Amino acid sequence: MTSPTIVWLRRDLRLADQAAFVAAAAAGPVIPVYVLDDETPKHRRMGAASRWWLHYSLASLDADLRKRGSRLILRRGRCETVLADLARETGAATVHCLRHYEPWWRNAERAVGEVLDLQRHHGNYLAPPGSITTGSGGPYKIYTPFWRALEARMPPAAPQPAPQSLPAPAAWPASDNLADWNLLPTTPDWAGGMRDEWTPGEAGAADRLAAFLPRARVYSERRNLPSVSGTSRLSPHLHFGEVSPAALWHAAAERGGSVGTFLGELGWRDYAQNVILQMPDYAGKPAREAFEEFPWRDDPVGLKAWQQGCTGYPIVDAGMRELWATGWMHNRVRMIAASFLIKHLLIDWREGERWFWDTLVDADYGSNAVNWQWSAGTGVDSNMFVRIMAPLTQSPKFDAAGYIRQWVPELAHLDDTRIHDPDVRPRAYPPRIVGHAEARARALAAYGEWNDRG
Ligand code: FAD
């Protein structure tokens, strides 16, 4: 019998439009494997919400594989050691995978490539990160010209259907038991809201997409309104690779009409990968280096109030509570909440990045860091620091009354006008931790002093 081929899965937990499976199945028997690496130094450990998602996504992929005569092998440890051991045990000579661009995955791919024949394929982005270059061949730093160049290369190749069956090896190697990985929270079990909201896995992604497509035409009008279902909520599915961006592009584009804004958001996802390819430390270092000297405040009380949704600003608190309950937050509200932490509280954006990393089900190294640096004004392409979002103005502007009512029950009895900025605060709702005018003046003064020094 032909020796088997390993498919090394990471954030590409799908069967459809998965080039690694296509290439491996063409060569003979396939051994799909997921390696949980909590050992390698500098391998950023997945946050708690992501680990919850991962558990169910792996279970779903295993069930889908079993319907095709295959199964998912689970192993723990350093990728290069685990994959080399697996190859030795099974006689596999080649490993196929999709390429990933987080610095630790690039290191892992290098290490695996040194000990095995590693074949890397494109598939998790619209275009391979690093391939969209300026006229002089350099990488783009700014989103708009990047998007123009990317769009000119679209559409992506048509997506491949999932294989009907996958050739199995003569004998299956041993696998860990998923439950033994303890990816799910137990004491306390804080994942109830996430279970209600999400169905991790390829079928869950397909359902989300089917629900969104009829609304794709009105995306540009509704995407900024947190009280309505205006966006796709596909971000965790995209992050874990349960749907390919190419499949999404074709499905949306086939709808016709004005889906350009939606496709442009997918472009931001590609853009973020291009940024971390150029600046791998993007989550830890401001792109504008002078910001390393910025006088951020050390304010554990303020940070905790922000994390717990107890700032006294209804729109900020609604967002932070939605995040805690469901592992997701509406994009407009993410921008408001991020601005509040950075400008109103003058807390280092990296604290926010870390909190989102731990609590978002779509926590993504590139997208999270790029958006935090955008909000802070520290990034290569970013909002200016002195642009301070006023939460009490943003809230009525984007019609957030229904959203606040859902997530801040203490305010649910207030009418659509008073709910954004209650003049008489219900006793159960926390007082404002800082006044808006005072916070704004403090932020501008800190910026001014820092700027003068620089
Ligand atoms: P839709 O509006 O339906 O957009 C479709 C897809 O495009 C999304 O699923 C996502 O993959 C991509 N996308 C949309 N907006 C952006 C964006 N600004 N940057 C990059 N990709 C985008 N997104 C993440 O996927 N992971 C993160 O860790 C993350 N952290 C963020 C942190 C901050 C402070 C902010 C302001 C934004 C962050 N975003 C992040 C971007 C954005 O908020 C989410 O992608 C979006 O809310 C997901 O909802 P959706 O799937 O309904 O998006």
UniProtKB/TrEMBL annotation:
This is Deoxyribodipyrimidine photo-lyase. Coiled coil: none annotated. The keyword Iron-sulfur does not apply. Residues 3-126 form the Photolyase/cryptochrome alpha/beta domain. The gene is phrA. Binds 1 FAD per subunit. The record marks 296, 349, 372 as: Electron transfer via tryptophanyl radical. Its cofactor is FAD; (6R)-5,10-methylene-5,6,7,8-tetrahydrofolate.
